Amino acid sequence: MSNNVPEVIVPRQGSTPAVRTPFGYITEDHSRLDKFQNGISGVCAAIASVAIVAIAALTALEVFTRTAFGSPLGWNVGFVEQYLMMAVAFFGTVTAYRAGAHVAVVTIFEKMPPVVRKLLLVSTYLIVLAGLVLLTYSGTRAAHFSFVTAEMPPPGMAELPWPTWWWKTIIPTASVLGLVVVAIDLYREITAPLTSVVTDYEPGNFQEEG
């Protein structure tokens, strides 16, 4: 590019004018549904954020106790792997979906007529919902099995002596929250006219929700 020509980045204009907020979007036609979705996204973001801070704090504490006293915590590894990283991954995914944080290449999508874009979005929501249903089902079964069998870490292990079903409920809980968020998008799309794409949000400007 020539040095005399300034580089201009123009954000993609979605089919639905929307304002980006910290945890999602706000539109004029469905502001209540938007705020409900954004509320779920905000809760998931808070859980994931606390988990990230806890991971950093436990890592620093582990280094300190190992270096200063020659006595590592031990239990922190299992706690981070089973609780904190699971929370970051699954609750964070819900927020990333609602806030449009996932990587997407929309070059071809933008060139499609509204009817095709609508069908693609509906298909995407159905696929995502199917995956979340499977996660909810399998995660619930695993947590239920751990509960009825009173599964716990064996005595003498470095892990915390907490019931295993506690951390196994993370997946189905986050999946149910994701189901609600995606189902609302699907509902809005299939109840709108065929030629109207209502959940293709414009990135817009960032502002705090009122």
Secondary structure: elements and pairs:
Elements: E1 19-21, E2 24-26, H1 31-69, H2 75-98, H3 107-111, H4 114-148, H5 164-168, H6 170-190
Helix pairs in contact: 1-2, 1-6, 2-6, 4-6
GO cellular component, one term: plasma membrane
GO molecular function: transmembrane transporter activity
Protein name: Tripartite ATP-independent periplasmic transporters DctQ component domain-containing protein
Main attributes of the structure:
2 strands; transport; 210 residues; disordered C terminus; elongated; mainly alpha
Give the number of domains. Answer: 1
Counted by DSSP, the helix tally is 6
The string of secondary-structure elements, in order, is EEHHHHHH
Poorly predicted ranges: 7-12, 203-210
Number of strands: 2
The overall pLDDT, averaged over residues, is 87
Structural class: mainly alpha
What is the terminal separation in angstroms? Answer: 42 Å
Share of residues in helices: 55-70%
Strand percentage lies at: under 5%
Strand order of the largest sheet: 1-2
Computed over alpha carbons, the radius of gyration is: 22 Å
Which sheet architecture does the biggest sheet show? 2 strands, antiparallel
